[in-house]
Amino acid sequence: MGHGGGALLGVRTRDSLAAVIQLARARQPQPDLLLATGDIAQDASEAAYHEFARQAAAFDCPQSWIAGNHDDSQVLNRIAAQYQAGGRQFLVGSWQVIMLDSSVRGQVYGQLGEAELRFLAEALTAFPDRPALVSLHHHPVRIDTEWMNAIGLHNRDQFWEVIDRFPQVKAVLWGHIHQDLDLYRGDVRLLATPSTCIQFEAGSEDFAVERLAPGFRWLDLHSNGTLDTGVVRATDFQYELDMNSNGY
User: Fold this and answer.
1) 90 in the Ramachandran plot: left (φ > 0), alpha (ψ -120 to 50) or beta?
2) pLDDT tens-digit readout, 156-194
3) Residue 232, SS3?
4) Which residues, including other chains, have CB under 8 Å from residue 188's CB and lie 6 or more apart?
5) Could you tell me what percent of the chain has a pLDDT over 90?
6) N or C: which end of the chain has fewer CB within 10 A?
7) In sequence order, what are the beta bridge partners of 99?
């Protein structure tokens, strides 16, 4: 958040982010690329985006920021450009990494506009021989946390119509659900990443959080089109979670 003492359900967001970044740097001090899949700012303030940039500068590598439902994509994109974090198509080793904006102004659910779908298809067409990782904020499949299904990607069928035309897509990665998830849709690996702050309870019918530490996901992309990945949590981070909240 823009305010230094800002907290979410009792967790100071700047402190939890700092704990995750410290852990990530200890595990991998020099990654090739940093992906921030939204939400980056709870209050969509310029101050929050600048603070994120300050902390993320701990990594001396290219970055890509995309908007979530709490972000203001126009503000985010303008500030991301100041930090060279606005790129959405990357060639990393033998792979292509594509970042999509699924945010909808004033809404919690996600939608990929025609321009985003066209960008996705054109990027995949341009490099048919490179395995591809596609990333967005909203989940493009149903999950077992029922209350979140209504606020996922609304035009998921259109998204998968594009993906299914390109067999080089090996993985789809997203944020939004504040959970670790790793499964397959056909040959495409589906990956969700924990929040750097609060975690939503998997399998819940209604809004619920659980006492899991904030974390990050690492990915090793191999030249043969396979990948290794895992989630690491900042278990030493101490916090008092407000378990009585019915929303945020």
Assistant:
1) beta
2) 999 999 999 999 999 999 999 999 999 999 999 999 999
3) strand
4) 163, 169, 170, 171, 172
5) 91
6) C
7) 135
Measured CA distances, 154 to 81, 102, 128, 169, 228 (Å)? 28, 10, 27, 21, 29
3-state secondary structure labels for all residues of 37-53: CCCCCCCCCHHHHHHHH
Q: CB–CB of 226/168 below 8 Å?
A: no
Q: How far is the C-alpha of 229 from the C-alpha of 55, rounded, in Å?
A: 23
| DSSP sequence for 57-115 | TTS-S-EEE---TTS-HHHHHHHHHHTT----EEEETTEEEEE-----TT-SSB---HH
Residue tagged 């909203």 (tokens):
138
Mean pLDDT of the chain, nearest integer: 95
Structure token pair of residue 35 = 């992906």
Tokens of 187: 């040959």
Neighbours of 205 (CB within 10 A): 10
Assign 122 to helix, strand or coil: helix
The string of pLDDT tens digits covering residues 58-93 is 999 999 999 999 999 999 999 999 999 999 999 999
This prediction has a pTM of 0.95
Q: What is the pLDDT of residue 246?
A: 64
* Among the listed residues 6, 84, 11, the one whose alpha carbon sits nearest the alpha carbon of residue 239: 11
Number of residues assigned to the chain: 248
